[in-house]
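Good morning C.,

I know you're traveling, so I'll keep this short. The sequence:
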Amino acid sequence: MMRQALRTMSRAGAGAAALALISGCMTAQLEEDRQLSTAIASHEAVVLLAKPQVEGISAEDDFMDCVGDKMARTAGIQVRPNDLFVDSMFPWLEPSTAPQRPEGVSKLLAKALVADRVAESGVRYIIWIDGATRQTDSGGSITCAIGPAGGGCIGFGWWEKESDYQATVWDLNTARTAGSVSTNVTGTSALVGVLVPLPFIARVQGTACDRLAGQLSAFLKGEDIPAQPAGT
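The tokens, ready to paste straight into the viewer:
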């Protein structure tokens, strides 16, 4: 009986090692579409907003905060708080009234009050972010039990997530689209049961935040997409 238990634990341990390698694997794709030259000045700022959605879910607030914080800390770009900017522009940037195209900004800036508030904010670029992090697949199972001699778990479960985001950059000085950058990151996580559950988590959304922040910073400074490894 003891030998069988040891063999079971040994097989589970081998499975855990294999799944650790699998779950640590992520792939990322980066794309850029530039339509205007950009070279943001030190006194100019940007604001990140969730792209208005008629239906569906807009980009997550915590993801946009992550991207903005990374751009400010690693690239020194001034990022204005999106809630304060939207409130200062009320009601013109509410989801139901926000312009769907940068040309619509021209009509807004024709209003003296709007133009004054934009000038006061120092915002040169509005960055509309669209996308989400979703679970795309899963499988396996974990069984846990408690008995007189103690408890434990055996088996494994896995799930795959995809973070897919696109950022469109509007230049308020020209009321035109400067271009867009996008990132797509996929990764597989696993939960292995070897007496106690052992999680192996692929940091998909965090990686997407790092990549998009780096892309946007380089784009705004007029640089090429920063070199990134094909997988993590």
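Safe travels,
E.
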